[in-house]
Amino acid sequence: MLGFHNIQESSVNMPGLTLPPFPDNFPTHPLLVIDYGLLKAGDIKEIDKFWKAATELGFWYLKNHGADELVNGMFDTGAEMMDLPLEEKMKWLRGDGTESFGYIFRCKPIGAYATNEYGNPDNTEYLNVSREDALAYPEVVHRTYPPVVNARMESTIIPFVHKSIEVLDAIMTIFDRKLGLPEGTLADLHAHMDRSGSDARVIKSPPKYRNDGGPVDKDKVSIGAHTDFGSLTFLHNRLGGLQVLPPGSEDWHYVLPVPGHAICNIGDSLGLFSGGVLRSNMHRVVPPPGPQSAYPRWSVAFFTRPGNDVKLRALEESPIVREALSRMSPEQRAKYFPNVTQGQWLARRRDNVTLKNRKASIHSNIKSSLDNFAL
Q1: Residue 351: which residues within 8 A CB-CB, separation 6 or more?
Q2: Which helix (H) or strand (E) holds 286?
Q3: According to the UniProt record, where is the region Disordered (predicted)?
Q4: Which residue has the higher pLDDT, 298 or 357?
């Protein structure tokens, strides 16, 4: 029988489990597969395929990135953190709104954030480590971290951050060239030690509903419909659950997790910098399909974002961006000049998903937000 059923979390929740495969009877949305080695080598056909992925859907698979062992270590780090007693994790809770600038570590209590336009509470936990804190360690840029995280900092977290930066910087360089910008333009907007919201993250969504197929009810969503706040995401997961909303479609489509393949996507900031040429696409996380839904869903990600003081605007220095803007109405063009910094943008987006800010007109508030921020 199709539908969702309540389940109990397995007593075994470590990321290294042998997990059931993604079921064949759940349709998925195909993503283009991009070879990182070919990108670095300057292969023209691969770069053109990559550009197609970044401008049409804004999501793609990336293989041969060299991060798999580091990702496994990050999963272990997250499991060690999430296994701590709740009262210990609460000591490291990040702040809200403007108080959260720079407080990138977040182990938030289940139910602190809304998942969708109806304001349903989430059931997800996060461990976020600031890029700047990792690069400066043992010096503190934003905040300190719990002992279980510090124990993994030099062996696991810092190498993962360095590898993620390498991969995403290479992608930024390609975007410079394709947009006709001077080399280093995008890198300068994402300077590694500028205070920012860039972070390494481990996410755990505990099993809650058995997903036998059919539409996903609003109260079953783990992480609701959103675009990413920053520029680029480097995502690694083992179970299904990620869904994309393809342009022009009203139907959500699963993205198949493929071993050894990261899932990368464009965020709001690159969408703005590129005048919408690079697509920041709507996505969400729902319970994994079929037998996978009996297991906790773990993800590891690195998010790169511009410096907090960088003003978000379409980069009219680019002939490609100027051409895109020239085809827009004045109202459409204004969307790409929001007159905010990245830090202000991040605070606004975070405020929108906090339950305490959703006490009135929840549906209309998030609908308006999604209209404003989905580029």
Answers
A1: 96, 97, 357
A2: none
A3: 197-217
A4: 298
CA–CA gap between residue 233 and residue 283 (Å, rounded): 12
Sheet with 242-244, strands from edge to edge, namely 223-226, 283-285, 242-244, 253-254
Burial of 8 (0-12, 13-18, 19+ CB in 10 A): exposed
Rounded Cα–Cα distance for residues 36 and 238 (Å): 20
- Exposure string over 310-347, b if 16+ CB within 10 A, otherwise e: bebebbeebebbeebbeeeeeeebebbebeebbbbbbb
pLDDT of amino acid 138? 97
Residue 242 has pLDDT above 90, yes or no: yes
Task: List the domains of the chain with CATH numbers.
Answer: 4-26+69-373 (2.60.120.330)
Cis link prior to 306 (omega < 30° from 0)?
A: no
- CA 370, 371, 374: angle at the middle one, nearest 5? 65
pLDDT digits (tens, 9 = 90+) for 24-49: 989 899 999 999 999 999 999 999 99
